[in-house]
Design goal:
The complex is a heterohexamer, with two copies of chain A, two copies of chain B and two copies of chain C.
Chain A lengths: L2 H4 L5 E6 L8 H12 L5 E6 L24 H4 L7 E5 H6 L12 E3 L1 H9 L3 E4 L1
Parallel strand pairs in A: 1-2, 1-5, 2-3, 3-4
Chain B lengths: L1 E4 L8 H8 L5 E4 L14 H8 L4 E4 H6 L12 E3 L1 H11 L2 E3 L2
Parallel strand pairs in B: 1-2, 1-5, 2-3, 3-4
Chain C lengths: L1 E6 L8 H14 L3 E7 L20 H12 L3 E4 H7 L10 E4 L2 H9 L2 E5 L2
Parallel strand pairs in C: 1-2, 1-5, 2-3, 3-4
Helix pairs in contact in C: 1-2
The chains are: A alpha/beta, B alpha/beta, C alpha/beta.
Chain lengths: 127, 100, 119, 127, 119, 100
C-alpha cells in the first residue's frame, strides 16, 4: 500500500488557470494554493486554458513594473511531485504561442481532451 | 459535473469558454451577471439555445429578477431555479467547476 | 452532505460574497453541513470588522459573523492573503479565524462538494 | 452671466457606464459620483454602452438577492438637473432591449454618435 | 501640467495601483504636478496601514505614503466607499486623508488631465 | 483624446469596445494585460493592425517585458513606450478615456 493511501483520502484536484499573470494576482495566488496542496498527497492537476497559458511564457522580466517575477516557481513544481501540467492547444494557438515558448515541460492537450480531463475531477478550483 | 457561470456573456469570455469545455450531459448554471445569457432575444441566447440540446441548463431566478429580467422569458429548455435548487443541483451533479 | 465554500472577492465590490452567503444559508436550510468557508484573494476583506455600510444596505461582515455564531460554521481567512491586504487579528470580525491555505485544501478533501464564488 | 459661469470653470464631464448592475458595485458607485457632480455645476453627461445599458432596465427587483435596488435613482437625476443621458443603440439591440425597456427617458444614439460624443469631452470617468 | 489620478482597485489583487503609482512617479519626474490621487471603489484598500506583504514583494501602501511625504501629493480616500469597506481613521496609513467624493469631481475640474486606473 | 486599454483582448470586451468607439486620429495605448493584443501572431493582433491605419497606437514596454513578450515583435506601426512616454502622450493627446 503506497504512502498516499495510508494518509487517507486521495482526491483528484484540478487548479484551473485562466488568467494572465501580473494584471491580476490570481495566477500567483493559485500557485501558492498549488504548492500547499503538495503537502496533502492528493492527485494534483494543473490546467492552463484561455489567458492562463500566458502564465507559462518564457522570458518574463518584471523589473520595469516593480512586481515579483514568479514564473520560475512553475519549474519548482516538479520538486514537489506536482507533474501533471496540461496546456490547451487551442488556447496557445489563438495567442500565437507554441510549446517551445513555455518555461516548463507540459502536456499539450486539445480542447476536447481538456474538457474530458476536467470532467474527471473531484475538486476544481479556478481563478 | 456542474459548471457555473457568473459573468456577462458580453463582458467576459467565461460563458463561451464554459460552453466549449462542458462535456455532453454535464449541467450548466447561470447566476449573477451570467443570467443575461439566458434571456430570449439577446445575441448570446442563440449560443445558449444550442447548449440546451447537450446540457441541462439552469438560471438563478433571484438574479434574473434583480436585473429586471422576466423569468418567463428565458431560452426554451432553460429551467429557472432558486438558491435551494442551486444546492440540490450541486448535490446531484457532483463536482462544481466555477468559470470565474 | 458536507459543503466547502470558497469566497474569492471582498464584500460589496462584487456579488461573490452575497452569492456565497445565500448559497450557504440555503444549504443549511436543507439540512446540509458547511464544513468550512474559506476566504482567499480579496475575499479576506469580508473579515474586516471596521466596515460600516450605509444603514439601508446589507452588512455582509455581520451576516457572516452571525452565520458562524448561529450555525457554528468555520470561517477561515487565509493568513498570507490577509497579511498582504491588511486583515489581521486586530481588525478581524467575530466568528472568523486566521489560518493557513492548507485549510482550503483540507476543506476540498473533507467536503463532499467544494463551491467557489468569485469575480 | 449665468450661475455656472460665475462659479468658475465648466467642463464637459462624461460618466461612462459599461458594467451590469449588482454583479459588481461599479454601476452604483458611479451613480454616487454622478449625484455629487451635480453640486459642481459642470456639464454632466452619462453614457450607457455595452453592459451599462442593463443598468436602466425596468422592473428590477432585488428582494431575492438581499441587495438594495438603486434603479429608481436614475429617475431622480432630472431633479439634479442631470438630463443628458445617452444610450447606445447597438448595445441595446445586441441585448434584445429597446428604449421602452428603460426606466428613464434617454437619448438613444448610434455607436458612431456615441464615439463622437465621447471625443468631445474634457473629463471621462468610466467603470 | 496638473494631473488628477483615480485609483479604482485595491493593492495586489489588480495591477491598477501599481500602474497608477508608476504613472504618478513618471509625471513627477517630468516636472508635472499631481493635484490629487483619489481612491474610490476597492481602491480605498490602498490606504489600509495594516497590510504587510511578503518581505521580497513591493509594499504599495508604504509606496503611496512615501509619495505623499516626499512630494506633498494629496492622497484622498472616499469616505463613503471607505466606510463600506472598513477603511477609517483607525487603520488609515500616513499621508492619506479621508474626504468626500466631491474631491474627485474637484480634481476633474482643477486638473489639466484626469487619468483612471482600474480593473 | 487618448484611449487606454488594460485588459486582455481575450478575456474582456474592453479592447474591442475601444476600437469601435475611438474616432479616427485619437490615440490608443495598451498597457497591463492589454499589451497582449499588440503581439504579432495572436488572433487579436489582426484587429489592432487594422486600427493602426486610423490611430497612433502605443504599447507599454515594461508591461510587455513583464509578460515575456518581445518589444521587437509587436504589430507593425505600434510604438513601444515607457511610463514617461505614457505621461507625455496624455499631455499631448488631451482627455483620457480608460476602457476599464
Amino acid at each position: 500500500m503506497d504512502e498516499e493511501m495510508e494518509s487517507g483520502v486521495v482526491k483528484k484536484f484540478m487548479f484551473v488557470n485562466r488568467k494572465a499573470p501580473y494584471g491580476t494576482i490570481y495566477a500567483l495566488e493559485v500557485l501558492e494554493m498549488v504548492l500547499i496542496s503538495a503537502a496533502f498527497d492528493q492527485d494534483v492537476h494543473l490546467a492552463f486554458v484561455d489567458d492562463g497559458v500566458y502564465e507559462l511564457k518564457k522570458g518574463q522580466d518584471t523589473a520595469g513594473i516593480g512586481m515579483k517575477n514568479f514564473s520560475n516557481t512553475y519549474r519548482a513544481l516538479e520538486g514537489y511531485d506536482i507533474e501533471k501540467l496540461y496546456v490547451e492547444k487551442e488556447s496557445l494557438e489563438e495567442r500565437g504561442l507554441t510549446e517551445a515558448d513555455l518555461v516548463v515541460p507540459v502536456e499539450v492537450v486539445s480542447r476536447a481532451g481538456m474538457a474530458e480531463l476536467m470532467d474527471g475531477m473531484d475538486v476544481v478550483l479556478s481563478a | 459535473m456542474i459548471h457555473t457561470v457568473n459573468k456577462s456573456p458580453y463582458e467576459r469570455n467565461a460563458f463561451d469558454s464554459c460552453l466549449k469545455h462542458a462535456v455532453k450531459g454535464s449541467a450548466i448554471l447561470l447566476y449573477e451577471d451570467g443570467v443575461y445569457a439566458a434571456v430570449k432575444g439577446c445575441t448570446a441566447a442563440a449560443r445558449l439555445a444550442d447548449a440546451v440540446a447537450d446540457h441541462p441548463v439552469f438560471v438563478l431566478g433571484p438574479d434574473l429578477k434583480a436585473r429586471g429580467m422576466d423569468p418567463a422569458n428565458v431560452v426554451d429548455g432553460v429551467r429557472v431555479v432558486d438558491y435551494g435548487d442551486f444546492v440540490d443541483l450541486v448535490v446531484e451533479h457532483g463536482t462544481v467547476q466555477a468559470w470565474l | 452532505m458536507k459543503f466547502g465554500i470558497l469566497v474569492n472577492e471582498g464584500p460589496y465590490n462584487h456579488q461573490a460574497s452575497d452569492s456565497a452567503y445565500q448559497f450557504a444559508m440555503a444549504a443549511l436550510e436543507k439540512g446540509h453541513q458547511i464544513f468550512r468557508v474559506f476566504f482567499y484573494y480579496d475575499g479576506v476583506n469580508n473579515a474586516n470588522r471596521l466596515q460600516e455600510p450605509q444603514s439601508d444596505d446589507r452588512n455582509l461582515v455581520k451576516m457572516w459573523s452571525k452565520l458562524a455564531e448561529d450555525h457554528g460554521v468555520d470561517l477561515v481567512v487565509c493568513v498570507a492573503a490577509g497579511l498582504r491586504r491588511g486583515i489581521k487579528d486586530e481588525n478581524l470580525a467575530p466568528g472568523f479565524r486566521i489560518s493557513g491555505l492548507g485549510q482550503l485544501i483540507e476543506a476540498g478533501i473533507q467536503s463532499d462538494r467544494m463551491v467557489a464564488f468569485g469575480d
